[in-house]
Amino acid sequence: MTSKFKDARLLGHLLVLFCVLVWGITFVSTKILLQWRSPVEIALDRFVLAYLLLLLMQPVFKRPNWREELYFFGLGLFGVTLYFLTENIALQYTQASSVGLLVSSAPLLTAFFAHFTTHDEKLSQRLIIGSLIALAGVALVMFNGSVILQLNPLGDILALSAGAAWAVYCLLLKRAGQRYGYLYLTRQIFFYGILTLLPAAWLMHYRLDLSLWLDPLQGGNMLFLGIVASALCYVAWNKAVGIIGAVKASNYIYLIPMVTMLTAVVILDERITLVGASGAAMILLGVYFAEHGLGLPSRK
Q1: Ranges of each domain in the chain
Q2: What is the mean predicted confidence (pLDDT) over 52-61?
Q3: For 82-93, how does the pLDDT look when each residue is reduced to its tens digit (9 = 90+)?
Q4: pLDDT above 50 (res 300)
Q5: Which of 113, 136, 204, 220 can bridge 40 by disulfide, Cβ–Cβ 3.0-4.6 Å?
Q6: 92 secondary structure, DSSP code
Q7: C-alpha span between 141 and 101 (Å, rounded)
Q8: Using an 8 Å Cβ cutoff, are 112 and 39 in contact?
């Protein structure tokens, strides 16, 4: 393995690590904004801001290729509209820490989907066992959220749906490779994400509120979500997937719940129960086993 190749892979891992650290905080940031804005308003505002920033950075327009545009449309639909609507609506029904944990099912879903849609990423024995351990942890988290804390289980289902949408996005993104510049690719994804958000915005009675930008708490959180968590992190994530692949990049998503839990405890004063902590531990154990095993050989 050449030094240049090692450096590129290291960059890919560092970019993904940066993204998951930022995204772990976004659950809490969104939870704060839900006091004043609806889920679709938060999603649309942040991606319009991100798109305008990327448009300033990459003001290049190419002649439309309808096959490519359809591909960008799919990325925008799954990676922006479906993911963020289900995730943000879930935050209205359950704790930020629970949403973070359940959305972290995305790596498992990515691996399962990849098994049936790709030729080079098939499920192994230890991946299946590790997945079952992690899924048991997810079940504990759902039990913790819907029974012990008496929260609406609809939030749990929506959070899992967000994980599935992100898994589809990553698999679609894998096919992009390095055919497009990452700024241009991300800008197009945001364009179609905004486009597919508009019907939901209309149905959910979107309202434009420019006054929120004058409030330090609301405006600061929106700037964080739009500039850092959307524009910057999506470019970094898309580049990282092009370097290390969808499955390896997705495995880092399991760090998001830890960041979210710590942030929620500090900022939102949320309580982490023993059941929830046990579920988190099982998720991490399952991921470790899926990657490294415990002395069992990997069988294709």
Answers
A1: 3-292
A2: 89
A3: 998 888 788 778
A4: no
A5: 204
A6: T
A7: 7
A8: no
